[in-house]
Amino acid sequence: MPSFRLDPANEKDREFLEKIGKRVGKDIVGDFVRARNRSSSLSSRILKAENRDNKRPQEINYERTDKIMQFTLPYPPSTNNLYYTGKDGKRHLTGEGKEYKKTVATLAHQQKAFLMSGTIAFELHIFRPRRIGDTSNRLKIVEDALKQVAWYDDEQVAEFHVYRHLSRKNPRIEMKIWQVK
User: What is the domain extent for residue 33?
Assistant: First the structure.
């Protein structure tokens, strides 16, 4: 799992946190400092990371809030088939990708999805029709489809867990999203 460290005392990290805060309309720096200073509890999520110059590890505590969403989505197409390079040299979403994003938005709203602000985490269970295939190729389109449906920006995601299962008769995605402090 990749590690990261944000230090509000560091000028560049503080600017980054303030930039995120402006996008989601919250005092992210204050929330971040309060989360770091809070004592850990059983519900805490602890991420161990190293600082930029790899001198010492630091813990960041994330606690779940009451805001939780759960829903089931259709099995996504592979990211390998979702983008093409246009004449302008830029990457564009294919028709299949646009259709999947539209379907996800509709189903998520039917299952009471709402936009979460602040820092979030999610758990994704991918029920695949076959044993072969790359799980991360399915993750990207789901994240893209839920942007502006369940969260404002991908920068809000602080933690995620992906699990793969085999389900030949009912391939699908089961997802749980929660806000963390």
Answer: 11-63
CB atoms within 10 A of CB 81: 12
- Distance CA(61)–CA(66), nearest Å, equals 16
Helices of type H across 6-90 = 11-24, 28-37
Q: Which residue matches tokens 């994240």?
A: 143
Q: Which of 27, 44, 63 is the last residue of a domain?
A: 63
40/95 same-domain check: no
Per-residue pLDDT tens, the chain, 181 aa: give them. 444 555 666 676 667 666 666 655 555 556 555 555 443 332 333 333 333 334 444 444 455 556 788 989 999 988 887 888 989 999 899 999 999 999 999 998 898 888 898 899 999 999 999 888 778 888 888 988 999 899 998 899 999 999 999 999 999 999 999 988 7
- Indicate the number of domains in the chain: 2
Per-state percent for the chain, helix, strand, coil, to nearest 5: 30, 35, 35
Is residue 35 situated within a structural domain? yes
